[in-house]
């Protein structure tokens, strides 16, 4: 395979963004893989950032799932306890437990939304910093 930019030169790999062959001279090694030097460096960086963020999000949703399992097991135990109590106390306790579960779920959702928003503002900040740099 030959370099897309130099038909005479052998390619050392493929650009992660456009999948064109790049020779030793044209290849820029980025964290996420090879890129067309000076052309697709940013694109490959964005791609690897995106993959990294997706992995982080899926790791977070895994821990949220664990919390949900703990909450439901706890709720099951509390419900079992409530069923041994007298009817009037039972109704009050049931309402209280349901309210507590809904509150925990709301807090968990809010945290996920907030952390996503923080991630977006980080991205726009780094863009501004790049624009301010003298080239
Ligand atoms: Zn080349
Ligand atoms: Zn490229």
Could you give a short account of the major beta sheet?
2 strands, antiparallel
DSSP summary: helix tally: 2
Instruction: Tell me the helix content.
Output: 55-70%
Percentage of residues in strands: 5-15%
How many whole angstroms does the radius of gyration measure? 26 Å
- The secondary structure category is mainly alpha
**Which spans have pLDDT < 50 for at least 5 consecutive residues?**
none
**Amino-to-carboxy terminus distance:** 34 Å
Mean pLDDT: 84
Write the element-wise H/E pattern from the N-terminal end onward. EEEEHH
3D shape: rod-shaped
- Strands of the widest sheet, in order across it, are 1-2
Bound molecules: zinc ion
The tally of strands reads: 4
